[in-house]
Amino acid sequence: MSQASLNLDESREERRARRRAKRLQAVPYSQRVTGSTRFWIIAFLAPFLTLYISFTLWPLLATIIYSFYEWDGNGPLTSEIFVGLENYTKLVQDDIFWSSFANTLIFAVTNTIIKLPLALFIAILLTRRWVWMKRIFRTVFFAPMVVPVAMAGLIFNFLLHPALGAVNDVLTSLGIVDRPINFLGAQYAMLSLVLISVWQILGQYMIYWMAALQNVPEELYEAAEIDGANEWHKLIYITLPVIRPVAVVILFLSFVNALKVFGLVVALNAPSDATRVVSSFIYNQALSEPPFRYGFASAAAVLFGVTVLIAVSTQGYFVRKANH
Amino acid sequence: MTTKNYAMENRLKLLRFVRPGRFFQYNLLILLGLGIVSFIWIYPFLWSIFTAFKSDSAIWSAGASLLPEEWVWDNIPDAWERANFSTYFFNTVLYSVSATMIVLTTTAMCGYVLARYRFFGRNIIYGVVLATLFVPIATVIIPQFQLVKTLGLLNTRAGVILALSGGGALYVLLFTSFFSTIPEEIYDAAKIDGANFLQQFQLSLPLAKPIIATVVIFQFMQTWNEFNVPLVFTFGNQDLRNLAVGMYAFQGEHAMDWPGFAAGTVISIIPVLLVFFFFQGYFVRGLQGAVKQ
What we know:
The complex is a heterodimer.
Chain A: H1 3-6, H2 12-25, H3 29-32, H4 35-66, H5 86-92, H6 95-127, H7 134-142, H8 149-159, H9 166-173, H10 189-213, H11 218-226, H12 231-259, H13 263-268, H14 272-275, H15 278-288, H16 294-323
Helix pairs in contact in A: 4-16, 5-16, 6-10, 6-12, 7-10, 10-12, 15-16
Chain B: H1 2-18, H2 20-51, H3 56-62, H4 75-81, H5 85-116, H6 122-132, H7 141-150, H8 157-164, H9 169-179, H10 184-192, H11 197-204, H12 209-224, H13 228-233, H14 243-253, H15 258-292
Helix pairs in contact in B: 2-15, 4-15, 5-8, 5-9, 5-12, 6-9, 9-15, 12-15, 14-15
């Protein structure tokens, strides 16, 4: 999506060289931007930045600040309710937090592992020139995205119903299972949640992959065909290497977005222990019923976010190191 | 000599490969595979649409079958009038259209300036916008709630719209990378003709149609189905709910009124599908242009 994000795998020396080249090339801003232009630049930036700082940046910062207070959302943040790291020490001992932490990670990882390869496979098929009825298939995979989460939760509550649902109806009449399975019971609830969310979001990642695949020059495939490459070879030696930089971005986006899962969990209404995720933990602590524990919930958001960020970035660091 | 023969042989292989017959076989195979997967994919979607035309008792006896034995046409008008879905629909349209317009305008302006001008703070803005895309904080709803409350906009439509318009980092990056592909010569020519800043911006907007379509589809879909923000910001006034929240509440208030619920879904799905069909031609092209950068 941007230069900086795409070249995650270039070495430090390369990056330094590129920056130096850019600096030399760039016209000093004092020469380019003068008078009325300066006014217009500020006027063009201001609307976005105002909204963005208010509703994205400030909330991130505020979450950190709140996490040091014993605060119920009313009144000012005074020194009397400042508790330092107490929210965090309580949180570390909170079993429910850790189980929702684990659930969120399990959800995000399995969701990404299933979703991305499947979406890539479908995208590869649907970008081949000779495949028929591409528009229809594209729309089919896109359709679940427009279903509101509350409805998605309810559809699957019905379809997966142990006694009356369509899925068990099909499975038992085909003789695949003897007894109806309780898909939304404690044992299978997480798996169902993951699969339903894959069902819903696949279209978006299919489109991301399709966009990435359009960057692969058709000539490369033609040349490979002349050299006798089969479809598998083309995938391994041409497609994947060419789309790798974009793939890293898609992977990160997918993972980070999966960590934010909330609506589907609420709508599916599965047993709370099996599918409780960090967002629903925060929601329950801070907003669902008194006493509202804003500070504690904020600490949960920060602790989770920071842990994941550290885990992901160290992994990214080692992956990058291993590549060179 | 041998190498030449080898190349010839491969060329013949290729010819055989592109023969229509072979493609026909591949297509049948793919159609079969994709057909099965798409049926599974579209089934829950179709189920919710057809349920809107079933009677309450028929749903439970139908099992896996899709088509109703007896078509019931009253569910959708019923949901529209009695279950307050007309209000929810109006709210959803208002939220989605306003938030999409606001996000589209602000991100396009910001992306344009970031792409064309080098000024103090430019790289900081770009870097921060990029970085927040990858911050895994599960939710920032609490501070957003506090901010809207401080502004006195809690339980107002304006509050919901503002909160829904506060994102768009990805769109800024899309616009920035797109506008930086426009050659400077175009602007030089315009400047000679006396075009000022605003006219230069107007000049580049039509070129960005694919990105505009992408932003419209993504943002419209996201706000149309948004659940979290309207749920929290309209606790105090049910008349401000959007369809997603209204349907969730409907589930609690009318336990088991499945056809009514499905009717609500149909009401909610159709406008988004229209937006998708209308803009989809530009859609993939827009993303493609963006990732090329």
